[in-house]
Amino acid sequence: MSSMRNAVQRRNHKERAQPLERQKWGLLEKRKDYSLRAKDHNQKKRKLNALKAKAADRNEDEFYFGMMNSSTKNGVKVAKRGAENSGGGGKSLSMDVVKLMKTQDVAYLRTVLQSTRKEIARLEQEVTALENGVKIGASFGKNRIVFGDEGEELDPRDEDMDGFDDMDEFAGFDGLEGMEPLDGLDDLDGPDTDMSDAPEEKAEPKPTTKEEKAARAAAKRKKHHIETRRNKLGAAKDREEDLSTALRELEDQRVQMNGKKGGVNKSGTKFKVRQRVK
Q: What subunit structure does UniProt give (predicted)?
């Protein structure tokens, strides 16, 4: 019977309307409207009480140096012009000082950009050497890592590496011809390779002998070293791009300040510098 009772159409619910003599005051306020208005009123009352309590508990001897360089007008803090930048008691910097500061900034950016480019060249060389299985460098130190033909990690101080004492011969070493591909290193081409269309490969068998385990561990270490160098190389290239952009913008500002190039003012109006007729 309850289902039949729910199937019958019932009278639509209608809210009580505002009386005709009160229509000029808008819609009739309902309970939910009053609840929202009361909640907002109580929240404002709590904020005012909290501010009154802070004002009553204020320390009269409290002092900050910012009180000397700023003031309040109609409850709004107003700082003196240039006080936040130059620190010279509200005085703005002269044009000559600004030009000198921009010159120093340009010199600093050029130095950092040159250092970043050297780092990029070094990382590119290390990535190429690790991918090819050889290490090109000035000398073998304790931090040098060399991988052999089978992917195993070699000791640079080993007797087998005596033939690479001369770094010129080592840099020109071409021992990769005819080398068989390393087992388990097919995925060292990097994350950019598209493997969506490739068929699913079967799981590789677990290593059984100590030699296979050592080769697998060396292959993992080599892959980790390559990924680390690639991440550092990508970060260095991003830093080089940011430094180049900043240097170019700063040089444009210096040229515009010397009156040798046009530009765009604060209003967005383009202007050109007049050239003297020769």
A: Component of the ribosomal small subunit (SSU) processome.
